[in-house]
Design brief:
The chain has 5 helices and 7 strands, in the order E-E-E-H-H-E-E-H-E-H-E-H. It has 181 residues and is an alpha/beta fold. It is globular, with a radius of gyration of 15 Å.
Amino acid sequence: MEAKVNSTTISLVRGDITLEETDAIVNAANSALAGGGGVDGAIHRAGGPAIMEECGKIGGCPTGSAVITTGGNLKASFVIHTVGPIYRGGSYGEPGLLKSAYASSLSLAIKKGLKSISFPSISTGVYGYPIEEASTIAVSTVIEFVRQNEGLDLVRFVLFSERDLAAYSGALRKNLQSPSP
């Protein structure tokens, strides 16, 4: 599924984020930037040791923030590492932190002059964020950002499962039907 918002294409695909050829891919990292399982582990395995070496020099990343490293052996030139919240019921600031993780990643991409970026579904794996809520926050944050900021040609969500793709597709349709602020 694709939609155009201002001059930015927002695309939803099912696939493997480590194979993306966008300028940057986003890693759902932990705050220590220490590698891990899921998307984080897959990106580090595919990208090779150069990514972890740069992560070690950076040292860490607070929840809701983003940092950038080389893409190492990946097709993407850069990896933007962002830390989403661990879901604890939704009343501990999780929605704001998740929104900040997406917005910080997008801001960093523009600051670095990048034109395309691919996101996984942040916080919906081992961090336990419910996919319906997370997809709504992710899509609305991206739409709001590209309505207010120029520079990105493509924002792609690369979803791991059909269930995740369906949730994001529903969120995109719903967001496009609501009037612009």
